[in-house]
Structure formats: C-alpha cells, structure tokens
C-alpha cells in the first residue's frame, strides 16, 4: 500500500535507514522522484582481482578473479533480481592491460553491488512512497521524526579548493598531455585532480545542500560500511530499456551567471565554441564506437547533438547516442563494452587511460565510474560519477577535471575545475561549512 510523506520526512527516512543498513538512493533531483534500495540480501565487492561474495550463509572470497567475470557470475546467481551500487573507474584493469598504482586515500572497493531487501519508489510531487520489492516498511520507520528539519548546519567541512602549488602542477600535466597529443599518442584526454579535507557531522546534510544548490537528473546517495557518497551528477553513462541502449555524454562546461540575460549569452557562447563542440564530438564518436561492439549494424544514431542544458551552477553541452542491442547481449556485456565513459577518459580510450595513470597522482576509484541499478528485467541505468563527495571516517574527497586537447588553454582548464567544484563549495555556504581557500 502507498504511504504519503513530505519530502523532509522522506529525507529523514533515508537518514534513518542509512544508519542501520546499506542504502542506495538514485534521485532525479529536478522533480524529487527517487528509487531506493535498502538492506542487502547479497553483496558483491571487488578490489583489483579479488572478489568477495557476501550472503546470508557467509562470505566467499575468490582471488585472481577478473571483476567483470565475478559480476557475470553474481548476476547469473541473482538473475531476475534488482541490483544497486557502483562500478569504479579502476574496473578498466579487468577490460584491458592496464593497472592502477597511484596512492589511494579513499580505499573504496572497485565494485560494490547489492541485491536489496527492499526497493522503494518515491514521488515527491504526490508525496507517495511505494514498496516495489520486499516486505512492507515497519510503522516505526514511517513515524514522523521529532524534528523534520534536515538541518544543513549539521555538517561541517574544511577543504582546500586549490593552492598555487596545485595550480602549477595541474598546468604542468596539461602541457605534458599536449606534448603527447602533438606526438600522436591520443587526441583528447580527461585529466582530473582530487580535493580532500576533513569533515564532521552527518554527510547526508551535505548531499541535501548540494541538491538544493543545483538539482541534477542523476543524483545519488550511497551509505555502506563507513562510506557515504554524495553524488550530484548531470551525466548519464548508459541506460538499457529493452534492447535499446542510450548514452548522454557531456563535454563543454560554462558557469551560470546571476541574470537570465547573462545566462542566455553564456549558453550561446558555449554552443558556438568550436573547442567545446570538437571535444563533445570526439566523445560522441568514441561512444558510437563502443556501441558498435554490442549493437546491431546500422542501428547506432545520434538523435541530439550539442544540446545546452543548465544545472544549478553550470551550463553543459550534452549529446545523445542510441543503438539497438544485438540479440543475446547481456547487460553485463553491454556495460563492459562501454566502460568507462569516454567523457572521463579521452580518445583513443586505452592510450588516454594509460597516460591518465602516469599524469594523475591518485587512484580514481569511485570517481568517473558509474552509480546505478540493474532491474529484474535486466534493464539498467547508470550515471557518470562526477560532482561527487566521498566521506569516510572524517575525511572528505572530491575530484574535478576536464577534457584536454591540442587547443586547450591550461589556465582556462584550471578555472574550469574551479567552476565544477562549485557544487561542493557553494553547498559549503548552505551548510555553513568552515572552508579554507
């Protein structure tokens, strides 16, 4: 039976559940609709080439197992069930002859997926909460909390958004990448940097503040173990609906201004930018190439090219690629064929990923991977993990980056990373955070 609760009450429920069990919430923040997985019947967790399968009867660890093979086995065992979680960027090592040796202060699993005990759907417009899968919610969970106010001041963090040393190093790796581009190693590469700091309080308050500052279509909240993931992603990695495959790559970013007139000018300039159009087209071509490995010949199309959309703090250039899956292609095969998202690597993908490992100073982990679900019908929808804060044991991590081409201006690329970090830094204002600049 449906339950009727206000958005603040729903947020309080998610907080309550997150303190008791693993929770994954996938939220279309622009209208407040959410799909929630709560509790775990089974969990697959992979790190490098070690896979651990958790279920009621106990845990089984397999060493020297390709994580994609482990995912195939997990999906086969739990066929016809919901799965929620994430695919981390470093799963690339299970697809190609690549490695990840950079420092990893987050130390998250490369893959974390659960078969949930309950699946809930929430429609903010009507205030309707339905249990799609699993037992009904206990009345004690649904009882209104004493204080419905999701206090933004319940979270404090201190983080450096960019020192002069950070800036100098980022400009240097861009110049190194451009030399590799001139030498023909690749023609586009995504380079990022990781911000870090300390926090105290409830990370869900940060998630709520990020959502309030800039609602996005692919927001996500994850709570498992001692990890809390606050994701405000505007980008879809990959969706399967029946045999139809859809990707919506983003390349091209500009800041949002105070007035409608200024924003119209900024959006027009972004659309007219040859550099941004070229970057976007490179990724579109890469996605089309990935689709060709699993889609029927002649079915891959680009129904929308260079659309400009506004998401709170940024304007983005977004294109759409579609295709029809060949008969017999599984969801795991489709995900593997397209992973990771080309907008987060560059092109050609493998050579760009090799240099990402050389030029960046940290293991990406969850960042630039994908958060989402696989349905009982084997459909799926995964975002691209960007604009994402990862909180663990008093430490907060947030990465930003951008596409580098031969025409990139290093100083402008640095400024773009600052624009992209506004989802965090402006949420700091909402959360009355203590911020060090």
UniProtKB/TrEMBL annotation:
Q: Which InterPro entries match?
A: ADC_synthase, Anth_synth_I-like, Anth_synth_I_N, Chorismate_C
Q: Name one GO biological process term.
A: L-tryptophan biosynthetic process
Q: Which residues form the Chorismate-utilising enzyme C-terminal domain?
A: 167-420
Domain Anthranilate synthase component I N-terminal, first and last residues per copy? 14-122
Pfam families of this UniProt entry? Anth_synt_I_N, Chorismate_bind
What is the protein name given in its UniProt record?
Answer: Para-aminobenzoate synthetase component 1
The upper taxonomy is: Bacteria, Pseudomonadati, Balneolota, Balneolia, Balneolales
